[in-house]
Design a protein that fits this description.
Strand order of the largest sheet: 4-5-6-7
Distance between the termini: 31 Å
Strand content: 15-25%
Number of helices: 7
Largest sheet: 4 strands, antiparallel
Length: 217
Amino acid sequence: MVLLDVMLPDIDGMEVLRRLRTVSDVPVIYLTARSDPIDVIVGLETGADDYIVKPCQSREINARIRRVLYRYRAAERRDGDVYDDGLLRLDSPHQLAWAAGVPLPLSRTEFRVLDRLVRRTGAVQHFGTILEAGWGAASPGARDRVKFTVSRLRGKLDATPVGGGSIVSVRGMGYLYRSPTTPALPPSPKPAAASTGYGHTRALHDGSRAQHRAEER
C-alpha cells in the first residue's frame, strides 16, 4: 500500500502515480490537502484506489486502507482458481500447469512463483513479493534463490510455445510476466537496439511511454 501526496517538492504526485502504474499495480491512496472536485476526479482517473483530503482523522485513514486492501485481496481470491490466457493455463488449487494444452511439470515452488507472476500480468513483481509467494518468508541469499527458480522456469517454458522470454527481467526490481498472446504495441519509428537474453526492460518502458502519449492524444 502506498500513501501518496499530490503536492511534492520535485514532481507532481499524479505524475508519480502515472509512472508507477507502468510497472506496478500496488494499491495507492492519495492523501492530500488539494480538495477541488476536479483534483479528486483526475486523481482517481490516474489510477488511485482512493482519495483522502487533509485534514482528516487517523481512524478514517485506517478505515480506507482496510477497505482498499480488502478489495485487492477479494480480487485475488476471485482470480485464484484457474488462470488461462489461451496459451498458458494454471490450476492454482491443484498446482497444475499446461502450456498449449500439454502438461507442464513444475515443482511446487516453481508453480507458486509462476502463479504470482501471471496473476499480475504486465506488472513488475519485486524480489520480496516473489520470495514471499514462493517460500513464504525472507532468507539469506533471497535474490539468488529467486533468480535460480526463474532461470529454471524459463528453461521449462522455452520448451513450450509460451517461451522463456515471457518472464521479463526488470533490472534491480524483479520480474514480470508478459503473455505471448498479448497484442504488441505499435513499433517505435526509431530503430530499436538489438537485445540479448531476457533483459527487455528498455522496450517495456519505451512501450509504456508510447502508450501514455497515445492515450493523452
